[in-house]
Amino acid sequence: MLKRTTTSLLRQVTQKRELHHAFTAIAPTVSDSVFSQVLDSRRPEAKSLFLTATAQYATNLVSTTERIQSEHPDIQIVAAAVDTVGPSCSRDGFSAVWFDSKIAVKDSVSVEGQETPNSPLADSRGLSVGRTNWTTQTSLLSVAFGGTSVVMPLANTLFTSGSQSTLFFSDRHSDDINNGHNLTAVAVDLPFDKKLGKSDNWTPALELFDYQTESQIVTQCRENLIKEINGLPASSFLQNCPTLVANPSKDTLVFATLGDDTFKVIAGGGGWGNRASMLVLDPGAKIAKGAEVHFKAVFHPSMFPLNDKPDWLNEELPKVTIQECKTSVCFQCSPIVEELVDEVPQVIDNMLAYGSEAGFLIDELKHEVPNELVVFT
User: Fold this and answer.
1) Cα–Cα distance between 328 and 322 in angstroms, integer?
2) What is the pTM of this model?
């Protein structure tokens, strides 16, 4: 029987900073006119723009860059097509932030086999556009601010722009060899304030055990391997878990929370392990003997009949609180969806928010729980 409890996988990583202007537009009714809001929102002192948009707007990223730089040639722009934007993983919209200083481009890699510095597919203003050859490479956007680094895979834009992904920076005053080219990776420093603060974020998950009445302590481990819990083979806890036994599915994701960090359980013998006693967590996990572990699971909604879904599957994601004069920067692990739904047009001020179905890394720690939201504010 499924327990009717929902827990929060907390990622309490926050940062206070002042920005000129950040905003997110959900479900723009007319893409060109709404994208003009990016230019209209520019303040006189702005020197750079960081712009993300969902895959269907990949070509708008190029046209918006052209429009802005035709009127303001000194503006530097970094742009990327992502899976989702906004705090609720919207698949229709864009999210942007203006800065009063330049964005530092630390490193970049041109799309191999598609565009080369000697033969770009460029328009009259130097932006590389047009159809390119398909590649299976995953493009990565890496942003750093206040001592924090966030790396996120980008959206597939093959059917909207002709490129596997859409990622570029454009600066009329830069002599960088990759300036204006479609990229497979870029690392930038976003000029945020470095003052630290604190905030919460949330994602739904089902606790697999009643941790109010029992504790599970790691008694033998090595690096990212849990060998024993409470002196018993670690894999036996999941192998004999009533919830997992009653609801078997290869789509079920199991996570282990150790302190403030949550890691995916990626292996444990055959299934959960008749032949092996250990559980293998993500490579980034560093497990200490004596640590308390909590196991949680994320089930795919299709596992349950429409009229018999657990209560926790129907819970709405909480709203991110927007504080006046403060900017929230949100990173999401977007859930995979099988059917798109119509969304209500909305503009959210003071928020930069984008996400990926593949999750993301924060300071090399993987965040991959579906609907997971990490907020900096």
Assistant:
1) 7
2) 0.77
